[in-house]
Amino acid sequence: MDKNSFLYKVRHSTSHLLAHAITEMYPDAKLTLGPATETGFFYDFYLPNPLKESDLPVIEGKMREIASRKIKISGKQISKKEALELYKNNKFKTEIINGIDSETVGIYSQDNFFDLCEGGHVESTDQLQHFKLMAVAGSYWRANKKNTQLQRVSGVAFGTAKELRTYLKQVEEAKKYDHRVVGKKLDLFSFHPEAPGMPFFHDKGLKIFNKLIEHARNLQCKAGYQEIQTPLVLDQQLWKTSGHYDNYKENMYFAKVEKDTHISIIRPMNCPPGLLVYKNKPHSYRELPLKIAEFGKCHRFELSGVLHGLMRVRAFTMDDAHIFCTRDQIAQEVETVLLLAEKIYKPFGFNKITFGVSTKPEKHIGSDDLWQEATEALKIALDSRGTPFVINEGDGAFYGPKIEIILHDAMGREWQCGTVQVDFFLPENFELEYIDTDQSRKRPVMLHRAIYGSLERFMGILIEHYKGRFPFWLAPVQARILTITEKQTNYANTICEKLSGIKIRTELDKSGDKINAQIRRAQLDQIPLMLVLGEKEEKSNTVTLRTLDGKQEFGVSIENLLEKTEKLNQTI
Asked: Minimal CA–CA distance to 275: which of 436, 418, 402, 428?
């Protein structure tokens, strides 16, 4: 979000308004951090007693009362010494101040409330009208579970009442079609305390999951990718060489083997084993770009408080690929990845796709010159396609900048899914080489690429995007045969075999219920095609074809049925 925009200022100022309200209501509260977000704001507090959801309306009421005072918001620079004196009883703010390089820090105030801040505010509190507190949850100082536990109050804020109403309506709609609710109704997946945060895919859910892989695999194959499969458990030294150990060890699962003398790690990402595959044999410039893909299972320890159905899990599958290329090939290969992403996303019917370039974070490896070169290559690839993009300062991976691909779903929500990352450093760490035209040994550049991202999360997004009503090609059960009496069972089995023979996922309702009950159940199960069979259909060797929207087509011949379903199944 543009920090100079009015909306950013509204959201940033509303986080201060929240902090102001909390300090008036709870004098013992300690302030920590409270940034603006993509839809609103949050603030993390240290409080002696926990807040509850029922406290939010009262806090929100206090915020509105403060806003109505029409307090002018002003800022100034003070010395670090003065700031440390102001916050001598707040260890969190003291730590922030001590980490600031400059000799002065910013303080913004409204009436008797003040907060450490770089700025970006509206002029007066009465400009803060269109907000709502949404949740209270646990968090940790600096997002580190070893640090002090805090309480996070989050909300949404907009520039107009209409925007707020629209957003809240979307939230209500999203609750109704929450993938966890729909997934249970459609028997797609479940979670169990024996493996928290790790999804169990049921038969129907796995059919969707496998169809997603098949779709991407077919397009990747046409684009010249090789596919590999690598081990789930690898020696911890591999992760130290890659740099992931130092950056991600808090989220890694460890395994002791060989009488506890040897420590391995259950992989949290797929890049290092892919590097070992590249290094397994010599390579020539003629092989580059070399595209190696893997649908790799990963495990990361996420705090239980952030787990959220398929959207945030501890075990997930990445549609990773690693492209090894020369420096001159970077921009062209990035553009090729974007073209592939466009093809993979096309049949899902997202409203629009937007892009961002994430630049060097504070915690990174490598020289500024390499970061600049890599970032420019990403911009060139987007510019060459005429694709608008925003710059996300400091949001890159620790080893390189990246393009983030954001999908906009049927409810107007944004989901960051695909990424393309430039990496000069892992090839250096692993001493990767290729033989150039002059027979010299050179380092390849490595592009990390995921399009779905996490398949589990992508599937969760699709469940909500479609509201459980999957398109024919993706539906776990594409056709269900409904018989008016048991006399049509043999005829139903014949049709089922014919449809299954052309790879249409078909099942027969064996309940023996009346036809109206069978139809209702098929509608609740979101079955795209219902084939109704009675005595008349059997005698004429036809079916009555019924769709989810209630439309019916009578007297459809078996030959016509097979043609229709084959055509529907080829929409991708």
From this structure: 428
Q: Using CA atoms of 553, 558, 564, 565 in order, give the dihedral in degrees to the nearest 10.
A: 110
The verdict on residue 202 lying in a domain is yes
Average pLDDT over residues 341-369: 88
Intra-chain end-to-end CA distance of the chain, in Å: 34
Average pLDDT, the chain: 93
| Residue 225 shares a structural domain with residue 346 | yes
Report the number of distinct structural domains present in the chain: 3
End-of-domain residue from the set 412, 437, 466: 466
Domain range holding 109? 6-172
How large is the C-alpha radius of gyration of the chain?
Answer: 28
User: CA-CA distance, 309 to 298, in Å (whole number)?
Assistant: 16
Query: Does one domain contain both 207 and 304?
Result: yes
Shared domain check, 165 and 56 = yes
Q: What is the pTM of this model?
A: 0.83
Task: Evaluate whether residue 507 is within a structural domain.
Answer: yes
Is residue 252 one of the residues assigned to a domain? no
Residue at 563 is within a domain: yes
Do 115 and 199 lie in a common domain? no
Residues 384 and 289 in one domain: yes
Residue 53, judged by CB atoms within 10 A of its CB (0-12, 13-18, 19+), counts as exposed
Distance between CA atoms of 148 and 158, rounded to whole angstroms? Answer: 31
| Cis, peptide link before residue 289, omega less than 30° from 0 | yes
Mean pLDDT on 51-77:
96
Q: Could you give the CA distance from residue 543 to residue 554 in angstroms, rounded to a whole number?
A: 7
- 461 and 343 both lie in a single domain: yes
Task: State pLDDT tens for residues 308-348.
Answer: 999 999 999 999 999 999 999 999 999 999 999 999 999 99
Model confidence at 572: pLDDT above 70:
no
Residues 71, 93, single domain; the answer is: yes
Q: Are 384 and 335 in contact (CB under 8 A)?
A: yes
| Lookup result for tokens 């608008």 | 388
Could you say which of 142, 172, 202 is where a domain stops?
172
Assess contact for 189 and 201: CB atoms under 8 A.
Answer: yes
**H/E element, 343:** helix 330-345
CATH number, domain with residue 507: 3.40.50.800
Decide: 461 and 198 in contact? Cβ < 8 Å.
no
* Alpha helices (H) along 223-270: 236-242, 244-248
Q: Taking CA 34 as the corner, what is the angle to CA 30 and CA 38, rounded to the nearest 5 degrees?
A: 160
529 φ/ψ angles, rounded to the nearest 5 degrees: -125, 130
Give residue-wise pLDDT tens across range 188-229.
999 999 999 999 999 999 999 999 999 999 999 999 999 999
- Phi and psi at residue 76, to the nearest 5°: -155, 165
- pLDDT, residue 394, reads 84
